[in-house]
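Hey, I was hoping to borrow your eyes for a little while. A protein chain has come my way and I'm curious about its shape. Take your time with it, there's no hurry, and the full record follows here:
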Amino acid sequence: MKCIVGLGNPGNKYRDTRHNVGFMVIDELLNRHNWTLNKNKFKGHFALESIGGEKVILLQPQTYMNLSGESLRPLMDFYNLTPEDVTVIYDDLDLPLGKVRLRQTGGHGGHNGVRSIIDQLGTKQFNRLRFGIGRPETPMAVIDYVLGKFEKSNQSLLEESIHHSADAMEAWLDQPFPKVMNDYNK
């Protein structure tokens, strides 16, 4: 069994914000397979499904970004998942929009959702899909930028990156993560 976790903030207020790209990738996977997040437990909404014989959990924590680990940890404990069974999808200011980077380990890079997961799991060793959102072109507070919406001019690049990320997650369900990294890092 594998678990794909998309980080974001719950509620319509945050729906299309840069900080919610993890939720957007989970939504794309749900739409592709006509699934819904039909389970509400572990401070999150999730689906437990199967693709090509591989069981997969798609999770959107409902704890707000900074407490994401409080949703993931109990779910992992309940389903006996290891950190290697998990991929976390989150926004990354240090990558330009359109850039997707898969990694097997790393620090939190100032991302409080990832920090929460590292704290809860007690390890930095888990798969990640870093989704580039770039930095603001004009001076503004980081929080205002990540909680802002994408410009209309970036919509096609955003959609392309969401599709690419969802493709990578589907590939991971039947291929080793290092191979997926080689094939999908762009």
In short: The chain has six helices and seven strands. The chain has a mean pLDDT of 96.
